[in-house]
Every structure is written in structure tokens, then in C-alpha cells.
Amino acid sequence: MIGAVLIGGFFALSELKGAKIGGPVAASSYVNLSGPTRAQKDKATRGQGTAEDHVIVGYSGEVASGPIFAHDRSKAVFIADALKGWRPASARDVFGKVQLIAPVKGCDMPAPAAGSRVVNLFVNGQTQEVGMYSFSRSEVVSSAKAWLGNIRRGEASKVPRWRVSPQFHAFDVVVTETRAPVHLVLQSRTEGVMQTLAQSLVFNLHLAEGAQISGISIIGGRASAVANVAASVPIAVIPDDALERCGVTMATQGVGERLIKKKQRGGQLSREKDLKEAQRALRRKVEAYNIWFARQFGIRSDATVYGLNLAGGALVGPVPGTPEQAVPYHPLSGAYIAAQTLDHIKVAGLHKWPEAYQEEVVKLTTWAAGGNPVAISRPRFQITERLR
Amino acid sequence: MSKTDLIAICIALAIGAYVVNTQMKTSNMMSEAVSSVMEAHVVPDVAAPSEPPKVESAQAPLPPSDFKIIDARGRTVKRREAAALLQPYKLTRGRTAELLSFVDPKDLLRDGEDMPIGELRGLMVEARSAFVADRACGALLKTLAAQCGVKTYETAYIGELDCETCDAAERLRRKSFVGHYQIVTEMAFTPKVDTGVFPETSEVLFTEKTFELETLSLKGPDGAAVEDRFAYIVEAATRACEDIKALHGNCVVSNITLSKKSYGKRHDFGDIPSSFTLAYFSPLGNG
Questions:
Q1: pLDDT (tens digit, 9 = 90+) per residue, A120-158?
Q2: Residue (of B103, B133, B152) closest to B37 by Cα position
Q3: What residue of B is the nearest CA neighbor of A388?
Q4: Which one of A139, A141, A366, A376 makes the best mutation probe of the B interface by having the most chain B beta carbons within 10 Å?
Q5: Which of A83, A360, B68, B244 is the most exposed place for a label (fewest CB within 10 A)?
Q6: Under DSSP, is residue A102 helix (H, G, I), strand (E, B) or coil?
């Protein structure tokens, strides 16, 4: 039994829907006031040739370069072949309910339900931004200290913003598998070329008729959420910081080898001895991760994982026979969302962004100063000499 | 031996006599003055400290523009480099003081406040260190300064000693500081006493001389010892400056230092250098 712990309560309820939204506009040109034309929709969800023609091999491995999703049976599918009515998620989407879930305690994930099919999917690279933001208290403390510095320099109006993007990005997961309940293992990978992009993802589920999700395990990422999931589905999350505490590294052979080659080109592994040691260390890390993974889910990760870097979604199960039979798209607007977050969470409709982050910085700094920090830490000295 | 060298030696001897006897013969008046602004609880009830007072200049006219200033190497000194003397009634980079304070975070709490934990404690100290900086200025105002302005203040946590070559005694010494914060306050000030009169010659020699005093060696974050030493340096500087004024007619204390920045991981933690610097003009050329 997967025992995701539910904490907090429901918030961001229906009153949000009528609220004025102050979030950033969607980056995609697909979004316009009059709605997309048929041609625009087609272009956004289907490309020339086959779906696999849009897979290129890049530094981090296979990369999606067109309107495709990863596919567990054929590497890639056009979005239009998996989802009907797809549209890019937007920071304007206002969720129906957000329920907070806690990450797992310890270093192990609950086992998948008996009889379920474990689907091992990796996600790497940020896609469409949504109006949900999460950040840690440490980040606010860091911003508060930076603001105190600004105040002392006479720049109190410069309240710092975040250093690591707190914004969630959407990833669509389409499930057409109906032969057995599916246990989704979603690996939020930050290794390789995108390793500096700490990810916070909303996995937006779209289930075909008859498809069932028996459980969801999310590995890695800063914060993670699942949208359009039944409240009864157990969700377990072990985020990046917990993995680090547990000494678990999401190492993969392919990405690791490319990183070694990069170091070689940079002259860091010029000695044969160093190169061999780096390769041995990589093998050890990969093996350690696979052993840990197999202990959780009964399968090795490297033998079962699929996914495409920079893909905005994935299909699990057979491709629907015709585009008309594709799974209907479930928008994030009005969706039920289960979210594992950092210390703070802000959502479009309820909070103005980025002001909400800066408000937290001001609030914390005011508490720390025991009064108005702008008055307390104000500049105390101005050079008044005028001599040359 | 030039007259300037002779003066310097005299002053050095005078200071030496002071330092040798350094079981702090500081005047009671000065100690009380400093202590009064260095109370245990430094967070005032008022939300913000008051602005430094604006003092309107009543100074003697500046020397004429053809008053040429030369340094000991014969180079021309820009007037702003001699601002410590030329602008005695304005806060200037030419007159500064640097004071290190050790702070126990509990001394920054208000009545009834709980001690924050983890990173919040550091933030609390950082946010309230302005009060410690103001207190440092208060010490100067009670003694040497007519005006004081805090230029900068830097807060650093004192953690365990990270020094592979340190012996047990050094580690033990450091241990007593751990958990405290050190705040280094850099201030600018205007002197309380008149800087005197300048030579009436077409050229003057600008001398800025630093006197290193005995290093203050602490076994722990002893605020009283720091206060006493600071008061002592101020008194020593004031007396030495009076001696120079008697010889040259002018003098100003241009720096007081009881501080050492960036020594968080060093083994000589607790050893705080102390010094003062005096600036004065002496005549050159014809009157």
C-alpha cells in the first residue's frame, strides 16, 4: 500500500476561479485571445514525417525537437495521436483544488500494488510554465540577507527575487494501457546538460476509458505535483534533497559517459589513470542507483526507463487507432492537484506573482529585524567631502 | 635626523610607555562613557535609531587654494587625501574607525522573544546588527567624535575551528567563541576637539602616521575587554594628537582600529590588532 501522507487541507478552492489572475503570460504563441485556428492546432500537435523524425540525439541523449511525446512502445508519438484537444498549459490556468502531500520519510518508496504494470518514465528539461510556484525558506532567508545589503546601500526598493526558478512546469502523461492497472514511476532527472535546471513539475494525467492508475512514485525534482488524479491514488515523492540525504544519485550510463567525454575535451581527464577511475566511478554510481531502484520497484531502471529530453509529455500504452479516438485533454484549470512542495507554495488566482515571493522576503526580514528593516538597516553614512 | 623623525620618535616613545603599562590605566570617565552605550541588551525599544546629527560648519576658513600639500616622498597630495584635516566638520573617508564586536544572539532578543533556530538565527543577527553598529558609533560619540556615521558593518558567525595545523590549546580557545557572531563596524567621524591651526607656508608636509598597539588577546568573547581596549586606544590617540598639536599646531585622529576582518578560519582567532593613526601638517618652504 502506497502511503502518501496527506497534510494540510484543501485550499485554492472554487473562489479562485473568479479571481483576477496576476501571473505571467504564457510563453507560447499558441495562446491568443481568439483561440487557436485549426492550422495552428495541427502545427502544434503534429509535424512533418513520422514522430521519430523529430527525435534528435543531443548531449543529454535523445531530445524531442517537435510536437511529440515520448512513447513506451515506439520512442515517440505526435501529440495529436495521443491527445485530443491538447493545448499548452499556461500560467493563467487556475486550479480547482490543491492538496499538499509530504515526501516519503526515509530513503525507500512504497512498493507498487500487486498485479500492476510498473511504467518507468524519465522527464528532463522544463516545458510549459504553469501558475504554481514553490520555494524553500532557505531561499527566502538568502533573499532577505541580500535585501538587507541593498537597504544598507540605500536601495531598499530592490527586494530580491529567487535564484532558482520556483515555477512549476507541466508534463502531460497520457495512459491508454487498459490490460492492467499502471503504477507510474516518474523520474525527474536533472543530470546531464539540463543539470542546472532544478525542476518542479506538474504531471497532468489524461486517462483513456478503462485505464487505471494504481499508484504514482516520483523520484527527484525540487517539488512535484500530479494533476487530474483521483484523490484515492497513492502518491509517493522522494525529491532531490531527500535523495541527496540518502546518498542516492540518479546516475545513467549514457549521460555519465557524455559528461566524462566533456571533461576529457576540457583537459580534466587527460591522464589514462584518471579517465579509467572516472569510468569506474560512473559504473559504480549507475549500479548503485539500479540496485536501489530495483529494491523499490522490482525492476532495474536502466533496463526499463524511457523518455525524451525536453519532451512535454509521454504516452503509456497503445496509440489510439484514429485521432478521433485519442484521449481527451484535461486542462489544469479547475483540476484537482496533489502537490509535494517546498516550504512555500503560491498559486495563480490566489497570489500575485512575483510579488508573492517578495512579500515573503519582506515579511521574514521584518520579523528578523523586529521592526521595519528599511528603517533599522538604513544607510547611516553619506560621504560629504567635496574636495578634489 | 629631521625634525619630523624626531617628533615621530617622541610620539612613539610616549605611546610605548602607554602600551607597556597596559593594565588599562584608562580613565574611569572614559570607561564609564563607553560602557554606558555597550549594555548587554542592545536592541532598543524604538524601531529605528536616530540619524546622525547634522553639524553645521563653524570651522576656520580652509587654506588658500595655492596651499600646496606634499607628502614625505615629495609627492603632491590631493586635497581630498588630506580631508581628515581639511574637512574636520564633515564625515569623510579620511577619518574612520573600525571596531570588532562579539555578539551573543540572545543579547539581540527583545523581552519575551524566543531564540530562533538554524538559519533564522543568523538572519535575526544580520537584521539586528545595525543596533550593534550604532552602539559602536555611540562609543565614539561619547569620546572622540562630534558626529559619527556607520559606513559598513559585516556580520559573521563564529563556528568551529577549521585548521589542520592548530593544536589543542588553539582549538580550546576557539571553542569559547563558537556560537557568537562577530560584527565589524566601520565608521566615519568628525573630531570633537579642534584640529588646530595650519602652517602659514606656501607648502606643507602632510604626515599620516599609524601607531600599532599591543594586540588584544582574548580567551573568549569578552565584551568588557574589547570596550576597555577601545577606550584605551581612543585615549592614547587623543593624548598623542595633543602632543603633536603642541609641536605643529594641528593634528587629527584619522583612524582608530580594533578589528580584524576575515579571520574566521584562522588559528589566531581572538587576537585583535589595535592601532591608531594621526594626521597633521607641518611647515615646508617659506611662509
A1: 999 987 778 999 999 999 999 999 999 999 998 889 999
A2: B133
A3: B80
A4: A376
A5: B68
A6: coil
Residue A208 located in a structural domain: yes
For residue A31 the three cell numbers come to 495562446
So what's the pLDDT on residue B22?
35
Do A148 and B126 make contact, defined as CB atoms within 8 angstroms? yes
Lowest-confidence region among A19-23, A101-105, A367-371, B106-110: A19-23
Residue A45 in contact with residue A326, Cβ under 8 Å? no
State yes or no: pLDDT of A11 exceeds 60.
no
Chain A contact present for B149, CB below 8 A: yes
Look at strands A235-238 and A68-71 and give their pairing.
unpaired
- CB contact under 8 Å between A380 and B137, yes or no, is yes
Reading the block at residue A57, the C-alpha cell is: 540525439
Spatial CA neighbour of A374 closest among A142, A159, A140? A159
Q: Between B35 and A375, name the one with better pLDDT.
A: A375
The complex scores an ipTM of: 0.75
Q: What is the distance between the alpha carbons of residues A327 and B12, in angstroms, rounded to a whole number?
A: 91
Residue A370 is part of which domain span? 6-14+49-239+301-376
Q: What span, in angstroms and rounded, lies between the C-alpha atoms of A172 and B82? A: 70
The count of domains in chain A is 1
Contact B93 A383 (CB under 8 A): yes
**Is residue A292 assigned to a domain?**
no
